[in-house]
Amino acid sequence: MTWLEQLKFWVLLTLTIPSTICSILIFIYFYQQQRKISIYHHLTLLLTIGSFLQLTINFPFIMAYYHRGTVIRASSSFCLWWNWWEYSINGLLLFVMAWGSIERHILVFNRAALATRRNKLLFHILPMVVVCFYPGIFYFAVMILNTCTNQWNYDAVFCQIPCYLTAQQALATYDFIGNVVFPVSAIAIANGSLIFRIVWQKRHHQIVWRRQYKLTRQLVLIAVVYMAFWFPLTINGLITTFAPTSVLTSIQVNFFFFLLFMIPDLLPFTLLACLSNFTTTIFKKQPRSIVPMH
């Protein structure tokens, strides 16, 4: 085991334990506030569920690899499942955030559009269901049902990469552009334009500032976490797609892929910061009242 793998192990271990606890506290919060859950909370809840699944199911295998230097189970079926799970949950978190960023424009500027049950089904529930299930279905098709032969390396994290990324260039390009570049760009553009619209309309006194600012601030805080770790991988991936070099490929594999693990680790803390009355709800703390002395 190299010093870099040791460092990655301790970074993940240090962050994963408190992140898991934080996710559990968020679930408790939503359970206690279930009667007050609104359409504005659905994005937070889905991102928390996705992060929790990564932290509890996937990360133990990743940390075991960095601790041992080999995969925990040297078998083709395990490697295939491991890759499917990693790609699917990363895709779920990415597409849910992308759609949530686009939908926030509706919630901030045209909330009445989702007032009817039909519109809520068509423009809120249905898109959320699609972005949740699309990554798992896509990667099941290209990994599990694919006829190409995987050459697994049990001394590499995730046993290396699935065969379609090296043997089927058109499919690999679609995967990167459609499942990485597109949602990352959607997050950046949707949040950037949301900030612009908020500032522009505030100057013209056309919206209720405090409420709209709160909804925008919550989403932008989450988007910053995504962009900080997805953007380097996306830019470097675009460069290596059209002008590949061994140095850039090594950086992509050894560093930028690892940065993606930081999203499930840091996301629960960011989501928690966006919840109102969290301390009061979880710890039953009531605001202090000053009793006058007689």
From TrEMBL:
Query: Listed GO cellular component terms?
Result: membrane
- InterPro entries reported in the protein's UniProt record: GPCR_Rhodpsn, GPCR_Rhodpsn_7TM
Q: Does the keyword Transmembrane apply?
A: yes
Where does the record place it?
A: Membrane
Q: Name one GO molecular function term.
A: G protein-coupled receptor activity
Q: Which residues form the G-protein coupled receptors family 1 profile domain?
A: 22-271
Q: Which residues cross the membrane?
A: 12-31, 43-67, 87-109, 121-145, 180-199, 219-243, 255-278
Which keywords label this protein?
Answer: Membrane, Transmembrane, Transmembrane helix
Give the principal location in a single coarse category.
Answer: membrane
SUPFAM superfamilies reported in the protein's UniProt record: Family A G protein-coupled receptor-like
Domain of life assignment: Eukaryota
- The name this protein carries in UniProt is G-protein coupled receptors family 1 profile domain-containing protein
